Amino acid sequence: MGIRAENIVKHYEVGGQLVRALDGVSLDIADGEYVTIVGSSGSGKSTLMNILGCLDTPTSGKYYLDDYDVSELSDRELSEIRSRRIGFIFQSFNLIPSLTALENVELPLIYRRLPGQQRSEIARNALESVGLTERATHRPAELSGGQQQRVAIARTIAAEPQIILADEPCGNLDSRSGAEVLDILDNLNRNGKTIVMITHNEDTARKAQRLVRISDGKLLGG
């Protein structure tokens, strides 16, 4: 069970040139593990994250999620996996400016067609878990960067995914806010969530149980 990538290759064509973004990547991540994939810009880490999150497909190789061959799934099935099994945390927060913190957290629950009262209760509990109960009615512009990222994490928590993929979650934050976000990820992992984080920051990377390095589309260890 968990995540298993076997000899993943990903090619892109840019300006008539073939770019080999991933070059034979193999990686196993067990359920409940906390892994950081660290590499510089252009190393292939974001491409790998997109494939692990079922946002993109490899040119060749196999990707298994809980022993299911993802390459054999339809677009609808991939969308279902993303909405129910995988949660995403992005560097840019991706909050909707016109919605309150509570309404942003409720969004994935609306797509599941949950009743309004149930959605609100789940969203409030998720905000409480990241220490933002008193900010529920505030819009993103009224929140600090750290608070916005915690709202984004609450939105992920509300959907109850088993796997959380965090793409540079502290990239836009000061050191104190970044430490708060990493503490939340640690707590989620202690409660059984599988965490996969990508970063270029060595200090952030060392917070995980296991560190995997990537360079020029190849894994260097871990």
Layout of SSEs?
Elements: E1 3-14, E2 17-29, E3 34-38, H1 45-52, E4 60-65, E5 68-69, H2 75-84, E6 86-90, H3 101-111, H4 116-129, H5 145-158, E7 163-167, H6 175-190, E8 194-199, H7 202-205, E9 210-215, E10 218-221
Parallel strand pairs: 3-8, 3-9, 6-7, 7-8
Antiparallel strand pairs: 1-2, 1-4, 4-5, 9-10
Helix pairs in contact: 3-4, 3-5, 4-5, 5-6
**Quick check: average pLDDT?**
91
Poorly predicted ranges = none
Biggest sheet: strands side by side, in what order?
6-7-8-3-9-10
Q: What percent of residues are in strands?
A: 25-35%
Descriptive report:
- The protein contains seven helices and ten strands.
- The protein is of the alpha/beta class and 222 residues long.
- A six-stranded mixed sheet has the order 6-7-8-3-9-10, sandwiched between helices.
- Helix 6 (175-190) links the parallel strand 7 and strand 8 (194-199).
- The relative contact order is 0.20.
Question: Short summary of the structure?
Answer:
The chain has 222 residues and is of the alpha/beta class.
List keywords for this structure.
222 residues, six-stranded mixed β-sheet, alpha/beta, four-stranded antiparallel β-sheet, 7 helices, single chain, 10 strands
